[in-house]
Amino acid sequence: MPSSMPDNSKPLRRIAIQGERGSNSHMAALAMLGEVEIVPCSASPEVFAAVVSAIAEAAVLPIENSLHGSVAEHYDLLLQHPVRIAGESLLRIRHNLIAAPGVKLEQIRTVISHPVALSQCRDWLAKFPQAKAVPFYDTAGSVKHLMAERLRDTAGVAPALAAKVYGANVLVAGIEDHAQNLTRFHLIQREGDPLPAASAPPDKMSVAFALEHRPGTLVRALEALAATGVDLTRIESRPVPGRPWEYVFYVELRFTGDDMADRALAALKPVCPMVKELGRYAAA
Q1: Could you give the CA distance from residue 136 to residue 166 in angstroms, rounded to a whole number?
Q2: Catalytic (active site) residue 183
């Protein structure tokens, strides 16, 4: 999948995300693409369906968090659908306590948010014993809910953008436990669609490959990659459904020039029964 295709790209306008408007995925989409129309989806498979069916022109999805690791489901969905990774960005995750206008901190008895967000604010919540932390389906969705229901004793944990989108107020900013809380996002497009204009040439590639279930096959695959000069920056394994103890490996490679990337793919094919390039893009 060489990246040196004619530049007939146009700005992307309809972007699918998992979750509600005002979420971190919404913020990542704005950072990558500027002002866009967000297509919120309740689950990740719906995001991919929106892209494949052209309901959305592309999607912005988290692939890895610096504290909680990879979003394994998204690797599986990338392999299952005719899509490619067209871009990458990093977003610093900031959690805020958000409530309806006029509500005071001392009124809060319940704090709702996505379980991952609550876990990333554990220290602050432990020092706020007047309120019970309750898991909710989405960070921004927690603010949407408390505003729709006119709750005066409930706060959500969400990005500041959620307060802006739903007309709420930030009661306490930056309640996350760790300042170095970063999420890496991928821009996902249909295969064959024009790539968006990029500020930097591609220097990173994501690849999925399968191996025969025999000793030494992974070593041979990695040695073949190393011989081409690419820099292996990440490897992730996922089980193959219906085939116990067999795995698909997902790797991220840094390269210099499309020739090096092409050599890496060619080196894998003799030792791997399945090789699929998932995309070439500029590293965040």
Answers
A1: 17
A2: yes
Q: Is 185 a catalytic residue?
A: yes
Residues shown for the chain: 284
Q: Which of 139, 154, 183, 228 is catalytic?
A: 183
Q: Of the candidates 36, 50, 67, which has an alpha carbon nearest to the alpha carbon of residue 184? A: 67
pLDDT per residue over 131-168, tens digit each? 999 999 999 999 999 999 999 999 999 999 999 999 99
Q: Report which residue type is found at 57.
A: E
Domains of the chain: 14-92+181-190 (3.40.190.10), 96-172 (3.40.190.10), 204-281 (3.30.70.260)
Question: Hey, what are 113's tokens?
Answer: 């948010």
pLDDT at position 245 is 81
Catalytic residue among 48, 136, 185, 249: 185
Phi, psi for 209 (deg, rounded to 5) = -150, 150
Amino acid 131 reads A
Q: For tokens 């006119």, name the residue.
A: 150
